[in-house]
Amino acid sequence: MTMYFSSISSLLDAIPAPDETARAAALAHWDALAKPLGSLGTLEEDIARIAAVTGDPDVRLQSRTLLVLCADNGVVARGVTQTDSSVTAVVAKALAEGNSTVCHMARQASCRVVPVDMGMLPHEPIPGLVHCCVRPGTDDITKGPAMTRPQCEQAVLAGANLAARAAEQGADILATGEMGIGNTTTSAAVACALLGLVPEEAVGRGAGLSDAGLARKRTAVKEALALNRPDPADPLDVLAKVGGLDIAGLCGVFLGTAACRMPVLIDGVISAVAALCAARLCPNAREGMLASHVSAEPCGRRLLEALKLHPLICAGMRLGEGSGAVAALPLLDLALAVYHGGRTFGALGMEAYTPQEDKP
Ligand SMILES: Cc1cc2ncn([C@H]3O[C@H](COP(=O)(O)O)[C@@H](O)[C@H]3O)c2cc1C
Ligand SMILES: O=C(O)c1cccnc1
């Protein structure tokens, strides 16, 4: 794969500040349209956010790509999931064949799906799966670190390079997704470390878990944090010790899109945890992030609050694969239909009004 970024420092250095002139132009255009000021809420904010990150108020989202990073997690050995790790490869194959759940949504939303092996256990060849495998699954975080720091950095850079390649191929926006049995455990551990939460506040049932399984999962997260002692001030340390290759890769996707001045949709908790790592590594990386939905997992809302982002959808979704991110695309299309086609106050012979001038 073409290397666009070869070190974490060069990647972080490549991330520009947002273009506030473009954001102001987009917001001014929303305000000129004949509708109550700010009445499309987060949709207006998001279109302005896209203008700020691209530097262009003429926002277009014709070409969309969903990157689904697939990886396995050693912590599955602790009985923290309903299914075993073999399901990661089964779903990765379905993603590559256009048959997994998100593929059906992506077709409807005119979004290309790119599944990527970031660190799956050995599996049968899967035609169409992009190979970026850093190592075949992580180690069990309750026994030691998930991976080494260099491996974590390699995954972050691979994610950033995937984003850069999508940008080069003409993508206007990226959606983030993942597939990796056990990754709601690693995500909860990363969320606890970054947000200072106790496992009870972050750990949920993931893809489905009994009460006994949920108790095991909380214990596993508690033990992983106590043993590895990740440094909350060092997101790469947290990712390497209690994260996963999918989360590290997604962190890189968020940094890479920011460096390429491209907007990017956050999906559920796994994606949001990666987004928070990226924002902690480089605050300007937050500027192009759009929150699609609030995951039903316990730390879903807290992660978005920490990112200071408003979600477009609150539907109790908890699927992964990038399903929430893809679900937001048609909403952005609706917003753009108004943004580009809506009549201005002037065109309708009305006087524009400003927030300062309340009219009766
Ligand atoms: C058939 C199947 C399809 C999925 N598609 C996404 N996930 C979701 O569930 C996994 C996380 O949940 P946990 O931490 O409980 O393993 C991730 O792979 C996520 O994408 C799936 C899970 C399953 C079982
Ligand atoms: O929030 C998510 O993305 C999620 C939740 C449960 C299972 N898989 C993904």
Classification by helices and strands: alpha/beta
CATH topology: Rossmann fold
What is the number of domains? Answer: 1
Report the principal-axis shape.
globular
Could you give a quick summary of the protein structure above?
InterPro entries: Nict_dMeBzImd_PRibTrfase, Nict_dMeBzImd_PRibTrfase_bact, Nict_dMeBzImd_PRibTrfase_N, Nict_dMeBzImd_PRibTrfase_sf. It contains 14 helices and 6 strands.
What does this structure look like?
With 360 residues, the protein is an alpha/beta fold. It has one domain (64-334): Rossmann fold. The chain has 14 helices and 6 strands. A 6-stranded parallel beta sheet has the order 3-2-1-4-5-6, with helices on both faces. Helix 2 packs antiparallel against helix 3 (41-54) and helix 12 runs parallel beside helix 13 (300-307). It binds alpha-ribazole-5'-phosphate (RBZ) and nicotinic acid (NIO). Nicotinic acid binds at residues 184, 206-207, 267-270, 295, 297, 318-320. Alpha-ribazole-5'-phosphate binds next to helix 4, strand 4 and helix 7.
Give descriptors for this structure.
binds nicotinic acid, about 350 residues, six-stranded parallel β-sheet, alpha/beta, binds alpha-ribazole-5'-phosphate, about 10% strand, Rossmann fold
Explain the layout of strands and helices.
Elements: H1 8-13, H2 20-32, H3 41-54, E1 64-71, H4 86-97, H5 101-108, E2 111-119, E3 130-131, H6 149-168, E4 173-179, H7 183-195, H8 199-202, H9 211-228, H10 235-242, H11 245-259, E5 264-266, H12 269-281, E6 289-291, H13 300-307, H14 323-341
Helix pairs in contact: 2-3, 3-14, 6-10, 6-11, 7-9, 7-10, 7-12, 11-12, 12-13
Bound molecules: alpha-ribazole-5'-phosphate and nicotinic acid (NIO).
The site of alpha-ribazole-5'-phosphate has 17 residues, from helix 4, strand 4 and helix 7.
